[in-house]
Amino acid sequence: MSQANVQIVRRVLEHYLATDELLGELFAPTFVWDMSTFRDWPEQQFYEGVEGLRTFLRGWTAVFDGWEIELDAFHDAGETVVDIGVQRGRPNLTGGPPVEAVFAHVWTLRDNLLRRAEVYADPAEALKAVGLEG
Question: Which domain covers residue 50, as residue numbers?
């Protein structure tokens, strides 16, 4: 079952990166995007439902020119999956230099649906949160 969860997460992320669209049918109606686990996140902590996630992604990507993500790894942790990646882009509001940041998500799945995603600035913290040491 857990490898199936990895495939669901991979499918959702790769589809989003290719199309800028989320596969809404793979999200539970009660899905929560949780930014409270992202160190010192100053804005809204929780985004509810797939529409909440769309709102977050539109706001996040709008501040960058050439925003992209490279997915580096997927870790199977049963009902949870950890993905680790790097995002890059140039802030368009400040005209500053390009930025690059490593991140991780801890996805919780049940009944083949995404229930929650917690966002981490430090992949080691995400792996530790699910009992895998990074």
Answer: 2-128
Beta bridge partners of 103: 85
> Tens place of pLDDT for every residue, the chain, 134 residues?
479 999 999 999 999 999 999 999 999 999 999 999 987 777 789 999 999 999 999 988 988 888 899 999 999 998 999 999 999 998 887 778 899 999 999 999 999 999 999 999 999 999 999 999 75
- The number of folded domains in the chain is 1
User: Within a domain: residue 59?
Assistant: yes
CATH number at residue 103: 3.10.450.50
φ, ψ at 95 (rounded to 5°): 65, 20
The CB density around residue 63, as the number of other CB atoms within 10 Å, is 13
